[in-house]
Specification:
Layout: E1 2-8, E2 11-22, E3 25-33, H1 42-56, E4 61-67, H2 73-81, E5 85-87, E6 99-105
Parallel strand pairs: 3-4
Antiparallel strand pairs: 1-2, 2-3, 4-6, 5-6
Organism: Candidatus Phosphoribacter hodrii
InterPro entries: Acyl_CoA_acyltransferase (IPR016181), Bact_Acetyltransf (IPR050832), GNAT_dom (IPR000182)
Keywords: Acyltransferase, Transferase
């Protein structure tokens, strides 16, 4: 698993991780931003960094699991804006009323280019 952070000064304001599911498929894991960073492009920068890395590794698909509660609506909108589509459970997941699943076919993704300020150790 590869982990990225976004920071402002000495403060971490966001994080994301990418986990390989198969040689051609990965999962976006644990993408988060602190409340003060929301709506300021931090999530977009992290997502672009992760997707750029997924493409560089040759993954054809990136999927993710997120929550269904209203709190997650901005995340759903971010994923949709970058071409993710709703899908069924994948990998180790099963149907769950508290989970929502999305997937992105990188061959059809229009999210090219990286304007990220995110970094990976």
């Amino acid at each position: 698993m590869t982990f990225w952070t976004a920071s402002e000064g000495d403060a971490v304001v966001g994080c994301a991780a990418l986990r390989e599911l198969a040689p051609d498929e990965a999962e976006l894991k644990s993408m988060r931003t602190v409340p003060s960073a929301r709506g300021r492009g931090v999530g977009t920068a992290l997502l672009r960094q992760v997707l750029d890395e997924a493409r560089a590794r040759g993954y054809r698909r990136v999927s993710l699991e997120t929550g269904t509660h209203e709190f997650f609506t901005p995340a759903h909108q971010l994923y949709a804006a970058h071409g993710f589509l709703p899908c069924g459970p994948f990998g180790p997941y099963a149907e769950d009323p508290h989970s929502r699943f999305f997937t992105l076919d990188l061959g059809d993704a229009s999210d090219a280019g990286n304007t990220s300020n995110a970094s990976s150790p």
